[in-house]
Amino acid sequence: MGTYQLQVEIDQDSGFCFGVVYAIDMAEEILAEVGYLYCLGDIVHNDEEVERLKAKGLRIIDHADLIDLHNEKVLIRAHGEAPDTYRLALQNNITLIDASCPVVLKLQNRIKTSHDSKENILIFGKHGHAEVIGLQGQTNNEAMVFQDIAELDNVELPQQITLYSQTTKSTEKFYAIKNELINRGYEVKANDTICRQVSNRDKDLHTFAVRFNKIIFVSGKKSSNGKVLFEVCRKFNPDTYFVSSVDELKADMFSPGDTVGISGATSTPMWLMEQIKSELEKY
Questions:
Q1: 141 contact partners, CB below 8 Å, separation of at least 6
Q2: Are the C-beta atoms of residues 275 and 246 closer than 8 Å to each other?
Q3: Residues 255, 249: Cα–Cα separation, whole Å
Q4: What number of CA atoms fall less than 13 Å from residue 218's CA on the CB side?
Q5: Structure pTM?
Q6: At what angle do helices 102-116 and 130-137 cross, to 10 degrees?
Q7: CA of 61: how far to CAs of 45, 79, 90, 219, in Å?
Q8: CA-CA-CA-CA torsion for 8, 25, 38, 111, nearest 10 degrees?
Q9: Under a CB-based contact definition with an 8 Å cutoff, are residues 75 and 27 in contact?
Q10: 3-state DSSP assignment of residue 281
Q11: Cα separation of 277 and 8, whole Å?
């Protein structure tokens, strides 16, 4: 133990959700057999984990690459895909290894049913996020996506609205948006489609955060879930630091004898949090 003698503990409830575990297990199985595998987009929003899998032969491609790809296997990650991706794969004789999260698939089906019923769909989600693109695709891109209620301030909305959410958004914020829309006079059919593995972490994380002098929250910068959970930590423990790798740790974050809790997003690998813990114990 180093001169700071930090007492470090990892939040055992953090780390990969079952959807990410399923996708990575599927990828590793094929990589072990074949030696390479195409993946449509980053398999998980964590650069460290992506680099680990690329070293094993994972080849990250985008939708433009898919147009020119033929007769190959391509993994669909947990975020899911729009119908156009499946149609293109069929045309190009691409075998899709579908690792879409079951929670996301269920949400896609619900949104498609609403769209087929001519409902006016609003999706609370991050613009350009892979999951959200897949959700919009169920509506021929007719659903309106917004990240914050302020985006709707000067928008003329229909009287009747069907509200959905990206699976990794804040439950608290979703219900605040629902209530605000009702207060504005709209008739809202709200569908709480937030993953319970995410929302339960949202509820339980504060009990972990308050136990320590400092919290190191480990997440990829592209992780929507990571941003939500980081804010939960920081709300209950202002001395919370967001890091994506060991290199971002700094000694001046800590004082001698600090207790330090390490937590992470549902896209953060446990091996990375253990690496952070080992580094802190050297201080």
A1: none
A2: yes
A3: 13
A4: 29
A5: 0.87
A6: 30
A7: 14, 15, 17, 22
A8: -90
A9: yes
A10: coil
A11: 6
Distance CA 161, CA 146 (A): 14
Cβ contacts of 26 within 8 Å, gap of 6 or more: 75, 97, 99
- Cα–Cα dist 30/23, whole Å: 11
Catalytic (active-site) positions: 131
Per-residue pLDDT of the chain (283 residues; tens, 9 = 90+): 678 899 999 999 898 988 899 999 999 999 999 999 999 999 998 999 999 999 999 999 999 999 999 999 999 999 999 999 999 999 999 999 999 999 999 999 999 999 999 999 999 999 999 999 999 999 999 999 999 999 999 899 999 999 999 998 888 899 999 999 999 999 999 999 988 877 777 677 889 999 999 999 999 998 888 988 999 999 999 999 999 999 999 999 999 999 999 999 989 999 999 999 999 999 8
Cα dihedral sign, 226-98-85-137: negative
Residue matched to tokens 């929670």: 103
Residue type present at position 101:
C
Structure token pair of residue 66: 């898919």
